[in-house]
Write the structure tokens for this entry.
Amino acid sequence: GAVVSQHPSWVICKSGTSVKIECRSLDFQATTMFWYRQFPKQSLMLMATSNEGSKATYEQGVEKDKFLINHASLTLSTLTVTSAHPEDSSFYICSARGLAATGELFFGEGSRLTVL
Amino acid sequence: GQQVMQIPQYQHVQEGEDFTTYCNSSTTLSNIQWYKQRPGGHPVFLIQLVKSGEVKKQKRLTFQFGEAKKNSSLHITATQTTDVGTYFCSLPSTGNQFYFGTGTSLTVIP
């Protein structure tokens, strides 16, 4: 199946700093990628849909100035958590839709962010 | 965003027992997908159901799509410790986003 790589796997930062997470589709081109946030033992909450060459579409309640998404190429989407605070600590995971007829999602390994 | 209820939230079974999780939507679905997330891992696609009343099998896993296309189930026969994880249903939206159900966490006791 298709491979999606996410980096970094985990990051610890101080409150007030910004953190960038990269999501790459390694063996296929993804015009659309999705960013999810997952709290411990909870479901995946869709944050935004990243569209190559255009602005991301954010879900209701997600601050677009807080979570900056850039999808500059067909294989790379980035999520930047700006001025991070402890409440932003979470597991962030990206996904891309595969090319198969099922349109299944392929997920990155996830990035665990801890804000001190 | 949209979220769909899955039941049960947690399930502990003895190895060899069966397990079922249900996904219920208030709206008619064009299709539904199922994913499995192992502890500490990322979700992995299991299957997609499209047709009303559709039943698909993958070894010990049986997936069903309701006749009204509003609910779906995943049944595991004779669970094994490798089945441990959280099972999510995923629903596409009209805007091409993918929303996930609340998930059912399965623990298999050896």
Q: What stands out?
A: The first strand of chain B starts at residue 5 and ends at 7. Chain B touches chain A at residues 1, 3, 33, 35, 41-45, 48, 88, 90, 92, 95-103, 105 (CB under 8 Å). The mean pLDDT of chain B is 94.
